Amino acid sequence: MAATIFLTMIALLLLGFPMMIPLIAGAFIGFLMLFGDLARTETMVQQMMAGIRPASLIAVPMFIFAADIMTRGQSAGRLINVVMAYIGHIRGGLAISTAAACTMFGAVSGSTQATVVAIGSPLRPRMLQAGYKDSFVLALIVNASDIAFLIPPSIGMIIYGVVSSTSIAELFIAGIGPGLLILLLFSIYAYIYAVRNNVPTEPKATWRQRLQTMRAALWPMGFPVIIIGGIYGGVFSPTEAAAACVLYALILEVAVFRSMSLADVYETAKSTGLVTAIVFILVGAGAAFSWVISFAQVPQQILGAIGIAEMGALGVLFVISIAFFIGCMFVDPIVVILVLVPVFAPVVKSVGLDPVLVGTIITLQVAIGSATPPFGCDIFTAIAVFKRPYAEVVRGTPPFILMLLAVSVALIFFPQIALFLRDLAFAK
User: Fold this and answer.
1) Pseudo-torsion of CA 190, 422, 156, 288, nearest 10°?
2) Per mean pLDDT, which of 115-119, 222-226, 242-246, 405-409 is the most reliable?
3) Stretch 204-216: mean pLDDT, rounded?
């Protein structure tokens, strides 16, 4: 049965169908093979509805909407200007500023693809003009956007938290350490690249200019305060923080900056609605598909074949990392999380692994896979946004992928990179 389902899904993918179609088809075929009765497929619909029922999922469209408003308005640009004013003048400063801007925007959007668009569109022309090769620029933007998947709010962490019944607030704070470590490694590499290629530095901003950019960005800097301060100060739940972000973004762009009209807000809402519909169809289809393979005991057969039951905690973490990394090289990250998390959940529990650590590692792996050839979704976002050929977008990615994989290995051997801040914030 498993072979039939997976071969059908692969065939549909190769024929060019969007990922939701193979998922629904796989679940439908699974139900027919399990029960042999079309009437029983109503159970599939029930499982799809159950998949999108958790209230925590409301945070996903809220954060997408807030990010869309910021991108269309002035907030994203003002945050970029602050970073540029303070570190743009050092060697490799423009590249470091790009990575830092991705981190800052990730702290208000939670979406890798939104970060590619919001940060890449204004900064790529400046980096090219400064003397950076386009292959390096594209690779930096695509891979630095991975930090947005780790720095709260992370849409990937929300999905993982819902599927695994893990605290989303704890997941959010656990992603900060690995995210900052990645930023540090990317900054070091950017400095070395600039020195080796003799990239000229940007003019140094005066303190007057720095203060001006800081003053202009004071309002947008309220987003991390709302999200991180609100959640860990006990004011908001993650879902409430997402709703507060949307309200704050609307107030800023419509009333304070006056950069958007009500018509612009309507168009942004329509765009967000389209993306949200796709995400929720994937979540529902993934829930039904996960139920089918779990009912058929496919995970037990696969994990038994590779002998994971005899592995210790480290071995399980390595298998999980490899599975999610490879999965996201071919399939959308949300789908991979929905399908594979239930597969590994019993093993994670049996070896006593911290679900927050596992969630952080999984989130990092799906972020890496999203920017890794052949089919990482961020690669195709960059192709569409920057109108560059596939080969040029992926040419400069190997050094960044190696750094990201190094952080993954470090997380396995030194879990306190993720858990230190979690333990401080949620001392028991």
Assistant:
1) 150
2) 405-409
3) 92
Q: How far apart are CA 140 and CA 350, in angstroms?
A: 39
d(CA 367, CA 359): 12
Contact 367, 149 (CB under 8 A): yes
pLDDT digits (tens, 9 = 90+) for 343-383: 888 888 888 999 999 999 999 998 888 788 766 777 877 88
Whether the predicted pLDDT of 194 surpasses 70:
yes
- Could you tell me which of 190, 145, 68 has the C-alpha nearest to residue 382? 145
Q: Which two tokens stand for residue 138?
A: 């594209």
The Cα–Cα gap between 180 and 92 comes to 18
Q: What is the mean pLDDT of the chain?
A: 85
Angle at the Cα of 185 (from 182 to 186), degrees rounded to 5? 85
The residue to which tokens 């940007």 are assigned: 202
Model confidence at 50: pLDDT above 60: yes
Mean pLDDT of 90-112: 83
How far is residue 46 from each of residues 21, 50, 280, 345, measured CA to CA in Å?
18, 6, 14, 22
When pLDDT is averaged across residues 92-113 and rounded to a whole number, the result is 82
The tokens of 193 are what?
């690249």
**pLDDT band for position 300 (cuts 50, 70, 90):** low
